[in-house]
Amino acid sequence: MMEPLVDRPGPQIGRSSLGERMASCCSYRTLQAWLPILTWLPKYRLSWLQMDLIAGLTVGLTTVPQALAYAEVAGLPVQYGLYSAFMGGFIYTFLGTSKDVTLGPTAIMSLLCASYVGGDPVRAVLLSLLCGTIQTAMALLRLGFLLDFISFPVIKGFTCAAAVTIGFGQVKNVLGLKDIPHEFFLQVYYTFYRIPEARIGDVVLGLLCLCLLVTLQWMKSTLEPPSEQDAPLTRAAHTLVWGIATVRNALVVVAASFVAFSWNAIGSPVFTITGKASQGLPPFRAPPLSETTPNGTGISFGEIVEDFGGGLAVIPFMGVLESIAIAKAFASQNDYRIDANQELFAIGLTNIMGSFVSAYPVTGSFGRTAVNSQTGVCTPAGGIVTGVVVLLSLAFLMPAFYYIPKASLAAVIICAVAPMVDYRVVIQFWRIRKLDLVPFLITFLLSFWEVQYGIVGGVVVSGLMLLYNVARPSIKVCDHGVLVMELDSGLSFPSTEYLNTVLYTQALQASPPRSVVLDCHHVNTVDYTVVNELRDLLRQFKLRGVGLVFSGLQYSVLEVLLAADLPDFRHTASVEAALTILSGNTQ
């Protein structure tokens, strides 16, 4: 198994000379941080090669049918799914810090792409370039921390809504319906309205594919791992069943294609098939920066960027968020560490280079990463094998894809996104913190209207909830003859008015006015607004003949308050000492 990769070196304290700083920047350790392959390649073993080959081949057989299916979700010709599926394996081998993660088209990124490019391949490729540029810039500027402001309820609300949108969007293909609107609510209405027009062949084939996929998935999840005590025949049977269940998508699509080919050969085309797709590898060329419409009208780069609008924020962020969440989950499971900024850099460069081979935006895939991990991959080199499998499919198998029934691809997509609808998380939110249901539900519901509105709405609500806690810190009040008020969090300018109100209502407006000990041992920073408000409070306490004493001030805060030269400012190390001072004053 690959050993944990080194962390990116931080600033070295005490290196004052320019020569030493340049030597540090050019050191082998720094090179390892930017090229993580250098940390595991020198230690590579022959036994790892065997496991990487098996894992890469298995993931490749999973990737090909999924890539074809996700291109349908993105509204693009099926070959664009494969164009997007191989570059990540090569780039991530050199730049990735997780042995398990596989980059490629996913359901969520395909849905987001469909929302902004409208099935236009030129715009999809340009979107990949722009997303990659933004992600790479974020990595170089160390802006990965911005992802921390997207809360878990927002992520879950979006993924659940995306799963429902994507899954229901494939029902029309199972029914063999055409010309159904892309807007979710219109799609629901017209799908049910046109059920009488459903093609029997597509319905039967789609349901059979769904049943087969669900059965194989159930077999894999319930199959107990073999033990050393099992007979060789038992272990061989277990391995065979597990292998079949793992590559179930490829098997189902191949079987469905054979059925469709057979019916077409006898002159009875009862299935809606994928149809002709471009054969061969995509040309390596610079992505187009402008577009010409069929009627000859030119669309400039600036106009296309303006049309993308908020997509240039939503898609890069969601892509990085999805991939890093997957990488962290499997790093924790398999006991190694990742570098989030390096992951951001790997994804960004993958999207930039992918745009040169006509790819649309990609990110980490949870399903394929799980297959990679379960198959025993040892290093990111498994991605090279996966990329080769996809390239071979593009080079030699594209004519065979003509007969793939759309109903079988729809079944693959529905089974892939179904686990994303996690109803259990609602119960967990209810039990742990009911307020988390608010951003979850807002994100979930608005995402059916427009994906970007759901994410933005959820982030805004989460931000307002966070700001409310900052502006309304918890203040614990105890009466020891003198009021003791304990601040449970820091003090910043949004909270000054609230603190002022509590002190006025509890102490200054009481009859008679009360002295107060302000326990500040949780306060680690203050700003000018806080200092100015404290100056006014000290003056108000003095006018009423009572005292305000601070206790437990941290050194950094005490230094600021002393420098501000507050009138009648008194502080003690403990609440008890402050009570003694105020009790003496009272007597």
Low-confidence stretches: 3-16
- Tell me what portion of residues adopts beta-strand conformation: under 5%
Strand elements, count: 9
Helix and strand content put the structural class at mainly alpha
Subcellular location: Apical cell membrane; Basolateral cell membrane; Lysosome membrane
Pfam family, one: STAS
Transmembrane segments: 53-71, 125-147, 344-362, 382-402, 409-431, 451-471
Catalytic activity: hydrogencarbonate(in) + chloride(out) = hydrogencarbonate(out) + chloride(in); oxalate(in) + chloride(out) = oxalate(out) + chloride(in); sulfate(in) + H(+)(in) = sulfate(out) + H(+)(out)
Description of the molecule:
The chain is mainly alpha-helical and 587 residues long. The protein has 27 helices and 9 strands. The chain has helices at residues 18-25, 28-34, 37-40, 46-74, 79-83, 87-95, 107-117, 121-140, 152-169, 171-175, 184-193, 200-222, 232-246, 248-265, 301-308, 311-334, 340-355, 366-374, 382-397, 406-417, 424-432, 437-447, 451-471, 496-508, 528-543, 555-563, 575-586; strands at 103-104, 291-292, 298-299, 363-364, 475-479, 483-487, 516-519, 548-551, 571-572. The strands form 3 sheets. The protein has a 5-stranded mixed β-sheet with strand order 5-6-7-8-9, sandwiched between helices. It has a two-stranded antiparallel sheet with strand order 1-4. It has a two-stranded antiparallel ribbon with strand order 2-3. Helix 4 packs antiparallel against helix 18, helix 8 (121-140) packs across helix 16 and helix 24 runs parallel beside helix 25 (528-543). The longest helix is centred in the N-terminal third of the chain and has 29 residues, at 46-74. The chain is elongated. The protein starts with 17 loop residues before the first helix and ends with a helix.
